[in-house]
Design a protein that fits this description.
15% strand, 7-stranded parallel β-sheet, binds nicotinamide-adenine-dinucleotide, 7 strands, 2 domains, Rossmann fold
């Protein structure tokens, strides 16, 4: 038996990076996975690699109607939703003096609004089928400020406290829905590649990223996917409203 055998998981941002790693991990542990992303080509490739019964659904997480459609498709195909991983995200870099209002709004539209819409849609579905686990990707930047990323830090702080609010509401209502936030440090994904490429000195930035954690290396997708598997499974049945770091010791300093 897999650790999430028979469960149905919806994963946003599953065309790349951490979301893609979670799709592979949860499918390998027995879940049926809906791969949701705005990148159709890469999302379809993940679904094709996993094979049936896993599905790809086109979703821009900022689109309220899109969420209704994806939830309806998931319930239509599998009859339930047990796990939502809100991994879709973007990183808009910039300190408080450089950020434009448009950049601030774009950052919050995806990371904050997208996670809010996902939590709301998932609670509506999960409460009708016996409960579930919602896992929101925040960041160490949602626990400690990052001077070069004012909007990103603020959006991840929002995800952190939204997760606790969802957890408390669901517990009070007796829905058997848990909600937790995950806080990685730098993980080796296309998002971090893009941050390095955009830096004035790419090599210096890459070295800084690789040495940031006390454990002396950059995190791997599997490091985060392993934690998300735990939160998705019933092994974490008494864990809700928690903020779990997976950061090689970065926030212990
Ligand atoms: N990589 C890191 O170092 C790191 C660290 C801490 C937190 N995180 C968080 O983890 C999550 C995943 O990051 P990643 O490194 O895998 O990034 P990634 O860029 O590799 O993947 C992000 C995915 O989200 C999708 N996406 C972006 N905007 C979307 C939208 N509006 N609707 C639907 N899909 C959308 C992209 O198409 C992509 O497939 C993000 O929320 C990120 O902020 C990443």
């Amino acid at each position: 038996m897999g650790r999430v055998e028979g469960k149905v998981a919806l994963i946003t941002g599953a065309a790349s990076g951490i979301g893609k790693g979670c799709a592979h991990k949860l499918a390998a542990e027995g879940a049926r996975v809906v791969i949701a992303d705005r990148n159709a080509e890469a999302g379809r490739a993940v679904a094709a690699a996993l094979g049936a019964p896993h599905l790809f659904e086109l979703l821009d997480v900022t689109d309220e109607d899109g969420w209704a459609r994806v939830i309806a498709t998931t319930l239509g195909a599998f009859g339930r939703l047990d796990i939502l991983v809100n991994s879709a995200g973007i990183a808009v870099w910039g300190d408080i003096e450089r950020l434009t209002l448009a950049e601030w709004r774009l950052q919050h539209a995806v990371n904050s609004d997208g996670t809010f819409l996902g939590c709301r849609a998932a609670v509506g579905a999960m409460k009708t089928t016996g409960g579930g686990s919602i896992i929101n990707l925040s960041s160490v930047a949602g626990l400690i400020g990052v001077g070069d990323a004012a909007a990103y830090s603020a959006s991840k702080g929002a995800v952190r406290l939204l997760s606790k609010s969802v957890a408390l509401h669901a517990a009070r209502c007796g829905y058997n829905i848990r909600c937790n936030s995950v806080h990685p440090s730098f993980i080796d994904t296309p998002m971090v590649d893009a941050v390095c490429v955009a830096a004035p000195d790419q090599r210096k930035m890459r070295t800084a990223v690789e040495r940031a954690a006390p454990l002396g290396r950059i995190g791997q997708v599997e490091d985060v996917a392993n934690l998300i598997l735990y939160l998705a499974s019933d092994e974490s049945r008494f864990v809700t409203g928690a903020e779990l770091v997976v950061d090689g010791g970065l926030t212990a300093m």
